[in-house]
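This week, study the protein below.
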Amino acid sequence: MVYKIVPIKYNSKIEQLQKNNIKHKFLYQSVKDEIALYEENQNSNIKIYSFFGFYFLVVSSQNKEITESIRIGDFEKLDDSQAYYGHYFNSIQANETISQTLRNSNTLQISEKNSYDNSDINVVLSENGFVLCSKLNLSAEDKFERVLLLFLLALAYNLKAEKLLQEVSKSYKNNSYDNMIKLRDEIYAFDLNCFFHNPVIQNKHQVYTIWNLIAKNYDVQVKHNEIKSQVSDLTNIIESKHKAFLEEKTRKNEKALTWIGLAIGLASLVSVFKDLKELLGL
């Protein structure tokens, strides 16, 4: 089976599909609560997953050619995002076959850095997606669904980081102090509820290990740390500018008040002088 994965923009037609919670229970509940599955029915070969407000169209078929021919014109690809592919084999495949599947070449060097090799399944990652092979000649489709879910989660984490980075950059260019603070608070809230170094419950050993592999190959932690660092640095800059602005405003106000006070004082002196002249008959 081949699964084409396309990040898409929100479309109101999504809401016309049946919305379901994911059945798997290996993720922290706060993360799982942010994931939804939209489908016409359970047997449909077109599904849409939602993670933190990002949507992924997943189209499946027996081979890549059929997958590519399935019409998905009702949905628009998200900006310049690429399509990814998940490949499921019901038997073990040679490294050369896996490389051809993922890259259309023999250039993929498979090692422990990009693969998980266990007694039941073999998972190999590339920049274009992943392959899962059952090693027991038994169905491992449920395990494939788990890996697919982790793969989508990694993509969603990265999209979230990229979106926040764009918004932070825009706020910085516009010297928008209030929006920077809002974004900083949003990142902290997202971290608290949804972002974990490993979002898999630790006793789910296989998926826990596979997440570490996916996260490392797709730089999830690196990108997340980058956005936090950018927000922290830029917020400090804007806070400094805002503080300097307030200090300058206060200084000007104080100076204005001083002049007003002097003017009032001078007016009072003039009034006293006039009264004194009248009293003395001058």
Summary: The CA atoms of residues 17 and 40 lie 5 Å apart. The two ends are 111 Å apart (CA to CA). The chain has seven helices and nine strands.
